[in-house]
Design goal:
Layout (H helix, E strand, L loop, with lengths): L4 E5 L15 E2 L8 E7 L5 E8 L4 E5 L30 E6 L14 E6 L17 E4 L16 E4 L2 E8 L8 E5 L4 H9 L2
GO molecular function: serine-type endopeptidase activity
GO cellular component, one term: cytoplasm
Organism: Sciurus vulgaris
């Protein structure tokens, strides 16, 4: 068993929980072999769940507030590619996210991996989030649809054509889209440096 070291991505402090899949569907078994489910104990001593995704045999990428331990690699576990440093996701494009988070504001986390298709929005749709940064974050989810990431999905990937372009970060407490995802591209040089030093 190899040590699985978490590669933590710098995220802005969450404004409200946006870490669950709402309005999605159950993922087909083994269709997302790069997904990681992390059960953590927070600084306050309470249990929390996060998602993550394998980017190499030794590294899981997740949200900065999530932590993890060792994992056993098997034939059913794979990795997902990262974007180039200059990758830009065009507003209007439809991507996916996946996770084990809540399926509704008052509902518990899911026992099965779920996924949802979400539209990339123009950054102006997220200007109401005080900490939203167009250069480092992606505005995701059509406000007219009842589909979003939510509590428990934090750290999961935003997949566009099979490439992880974002990480579930935060959103509104009522789960109304859009939500904020950390944009991976600006961090690619740093990530590659960490991976080389593994």
């Amino acid at each position: 068993m190899q040590a699985l070291i978490l590669l933590l991505v710098i995220l802005f402090a969450p404004e409200a929980g946006a870490e669950e899949i709402i309005g999605g569907m159950e993922s087909k078994p083994h269709s997302r072999p790069y997904m990681a489910h992390l059960e953590i104990i927070t600084d306050s001593g309470s249990a929390a769940n996060c998602g993550g995704f394998l980017i190499s045999q030794k590294f899981v990428m997740t949200a900065a507030h999530c932590e993890g331990r060792r994992a056993k690699l098997t034939h059913a576990v794979g990795t997902v590619p990262l974007p180039t440093r200059s990758a830009f996701i065009q507003p209007g494009r439809v991507c996916r996210t996946a996770g084990w988070g809540k399926t509704g504001v008052m509902k518990p986390g899911s026992d099965v991996l779920r996924e949802v298709k979400l539209r990339i929005m123009n950054g102006k749709a997220c200007d109401h989030f005080q900490l939203f940064d167009h250069n480092l974050q992606i505005c995701v989810g059509n406000p007219r649809k009842k589909r979003s990431a939510f509590k428990g999905d934090s750290g999961g990937p935003l997949l566009c054509a099979g490439v992880a372009h974002g990480i579930v970060s935060y959103g509104r407490g009522n789960a109304k889209p859009p939500a904020i995802f950390t944009h991976i591209s600006p961090y690619v040089p740093w990530i590659k440096k960490i991976l080389k030093g593994d």
